[in-house]
Here is the input.
Amino acid sequence: MASLDRVKVLVLGDSGVGKSSLVHLLCQNQVLGNPSWTVGCSVDVRVHDYKEGTPEEKTFYIELWDVGGSVGGASSVKSTRAVFFNSVNGIILVHDLTNKKSSQNLYRWSLEAVNKDLVPSGVLVTNGDYDREQFAENQIPLLVIGTKLDQIHEAKRNEVLTRIAFLAEDFNAEEINLDCTNPRYLAAGSSNAVKLSRFFDKVIEKRYFIRDGSQIVGFPDRKRFGAGIVKNLHYD
Amino acid sequence: MSFLIDSSIVVTSQVLFFGFGWLFFMRQLFKDYEVRQYVVQVIFSVTFAFSCTMFELIIFEILGVLNSSSRYFHWKMNLCVILLILVFMVPFYIGYFIVSNIRLLHRQRVLFSCGLWLTFMYFFWKLGDPFPILSPKHGILSIEQLISRVGVIGVTLMALLSGFGAVNCPYTYMSYFLRNVTDTDILALERRLLQTMDMIISKKKRIATARRNMFQRGDVNNKPSGFWGMIKSVTTSAPGSENLTLIQQEVDALEELSRQLFLETVDLYATKERIEYSKTFKGRYFNVLGYFFSVYCVWKIFMATINIVFDRVGKTDPVTRGIEITVNYLGIQFDVKFWSQHISFILVGIIIVTSIRGLLITLTKFFYAISSSKSSNVIVLLLAQIMGMYFVSSVLLIRMSMPPEYRTIITEVLGELQFNFYHRWFDVIFLVSALSSILFLYLAHKQAPEKHMTP
Here is the structure.
């Protein structure tokens, strides 16, 4: 496969939320039997049919980069992690529905990843506070996934889901809530599977169009390359 | 009447310590995690509160604050509570939380945690056999039995930490030991890491394609199922699946390599930061401090060796000896009793404060390094256990630093323990720990540069 078809999606979240189980479920369609602590970064590949069912159907390999660690870690770990955040096409933010802190930490995770991409010098310019402005500029598709759905009592479910809905709105992202030990949640045809498919399609579109240079609206370099945009504007 | 006043003072201070432990827990230890089990937090704060009260009582002893009988009463009560917590409550809860993490045993949690606790008690009891710590006239369930065993564990811990700390402190402070790391080294390592990740990805793509093809051909299960499946897989092996296992093995090896490269890169970044730090003012100050500490460390090792070789246990405490030296050799006359009280108060106070602070900092570092959201409860309880044992044995050992008139209360309260044994044991473990830390650091230091330096 040529490097043209290369699509990179990050999977971020606190340690212990279930990223490795999730990635295993997405790529192997099987439940991970013995999850262990992720050191560094583990990669897996998902075969995705872009625009499935239409005449334009094409197969892509989506790389899911599961980056381990905690958001408040040592700065040497953060600098090393930054090497994985290059040229990212999509981000999946994973949090634990039973742990409020892990949802709050998602803001810091997304800032860490997004800043690395926008600032070419590789210096983290944020002090960790959430800033909607930075997300308004962000063109990388986001998806928020909440795990351990089965461990929430029926009574508290509504309250938790409302809170998560606000979170997803902040990121301007879709949200999926599931249990990584039960493949039923991502069964073909379910609403979760449709959302997932739509997310990957969006990722591929952004990637594909940027390669072609034909994308008009929301070109991420608009603010930086003022002169160059004029050439790219009218293409169709 | 005075007893009530004294008790209220002590209880107030206990509540204050409890609050401090609570805050420390929330702000430092658990600042990235969500506290769901308040039991853990309460146990930690209670252990901290009672341990600090013991130190407070020592200070009161030296300063002569409060009534002597009420002091004695509070000592005894404090000791009983602390032993109760350290031997009964904390181990039980550690077992309970360990069992809760295992999914299979979820139903009979309490039963299994009781089982674990009984195992712990058995080993705890057996601990007393090889050591000459008791005189035979003590009964089975006396306080001395428990204290002596707790003391052994605590003293071992203290000596291990001191030994490692004494060696590690100059090693970290002094910039002489810093390996030279340049940006090109880091970039080269990062490139290798990304190349390894790319190789893993290309191999996984092959596996995914092969699996998809087999799936589409209708060969859903490529794993042999059942008896006939096993026989079949022995005789006829599909070439596709054989290839797959080979590729999978290669992937596993590459993933192991990527983990190692990641850890090495983290190490290089940390070293680079340390180099930058050493160029600042603070860094240089610590560098000089490091030289002093290395001298101190060598002296301590030397003294420990002398103590063991010549079977010598210090009879006098540093305060009295200092006063003796000043009086005898320097000829300065002053009111011995008055000054010895104040000086020993300051000295003991400094020892207490630095050891508490040092312990809390070490615990925090340990906690950040090894905990995750699953095991955080167990680790905090383990730390509370270590902290309690550490403080109890500090009380044991601090007896040696106090002039004889203040030692009596500790001797009375703790019963007739062989204190000399504990000091000897401390020296032995300190020596072993310091020497093995030196060896360990030397090996680690030697091994690292050869891997990273660009030729």
